[in-house]
Amino acid sequence: MSELLENLQQWWNETGLLHRLLPILLLLLVGIVVIRIVIAIVNRMLRKSKLEKAAHGLIRSVIRVVLYLLLGLTCASALGIDITGIVALASVVTLALSLALQDSLTNLIGGFTLLYTHPFASGHYVEIAGQSGTVEEIGMAYTKLITPDNKIISIPNASVVAAEIVNYTVTGTRRLDINITTGYDAPIEKVLAALREAADVPEKLEEKGIFAEVMNYGDKGIEFSVRIWTTGDDYWSTMFNINRRINAIFQRENLHMTYPHLHVHMENK
User: Which of 43, 134, 175, 269 has its CA 20 to 30 A from that of 63?
Assistant: First the structure.
């Protein structure tokens, strides 16, 4: 056992690994500290920049990967390893990985496409690929939405780029449409007056006014529509408020909304 230890000590001294490893470990330690400092500086610059918050995660991730890759190549060079061979090997591995991880690379490219085209920003309420929510983050692979009931939906960036995107926030205002149906015995002008009264809420945009009109004579009754414009932030609360007001005013005015029914006419012969 002692002979084995002596042989190991002799091999250690002959190869000089201690003298070679200490500078490498020091270089690695300094490199990690420098990378963290750079990332902190990047975070500070991102917070002060006009770039959307949703893009910060993607930029940080890309910079971090590049810096650690450079640190790894530097340490390999300091160990006396031929970097040219590593770069060539990395090229082959990258090609193989790009074929194996084609979807992931597509999502990464999709993330940069979203940053360039800028179809939405952090905090915007959007509908993407049938999913609705507030934009939280554009990551390297996924765009994250937070739904009104506080669920997080992660959609692949490639799907986001290919999908139809509906942005409800970017213009700052939204049109609120409420449709109801009454029986044919309801006085049209009385119904329209009730709808205008119900839609006359403080949240409506005065310059847009109130639109209330007969839209169609359907099988189950007369179809009416009332429309106002409001801010994106007030949309849902205003809709709920108007719906309650319509019900209260209709009860006061003795107006009735229809529900699915069937009229049967029988004749005696």
Answer: 134
DSSP codes of every residue in 83-125? HHHHHHHHHHHHHHHHHHTHHHHHHHHHHHHHHHH----TT-E
Cβ atoms 213, 254 nearer than 8 A = no
> What does the pLDDT average to over 224-253?
93
Q: Kindly report the pTM of this predicted structure.
A: 0.56
**pLDDT tens per residue, range 54-80:** 567 767 777 888 888 787 777 777 666
- The answer to whether the beta carbons of residues 199 and 210 sit under 8 Å apart is yes
Q: Which of 131, 245, 151 shows the shortest CA–CA distance to 198? A: 245
Q: Tell me the three state secondary structure of residue 157.
A: helix
pLDDT tens for residues 161-179?
888 899 988 888 899 999 9
Q: Which of 132, 237, 245, 239 is nearest to 176 (CA)?
A: 239
- How long is the chain? 269
d(CA 55, CA 59): 6
Q: Are 156 and 110 in contact (CB under 8 A)?
A: yes
Compute the distance between CA of residue 77 and CA of residue 165 in angstroms, rounded to an integer.
47
Domains and CATH numbers, the chain: 13-100 (1.10.287), 111-167 (2.30.30.60), 173-252 (3.30.70.100)
Which residue reads 């509906």 in tokens? 166
Q: How far is CA 2 from CA 5, 11, 15, in A?
A: 5, 14, 20
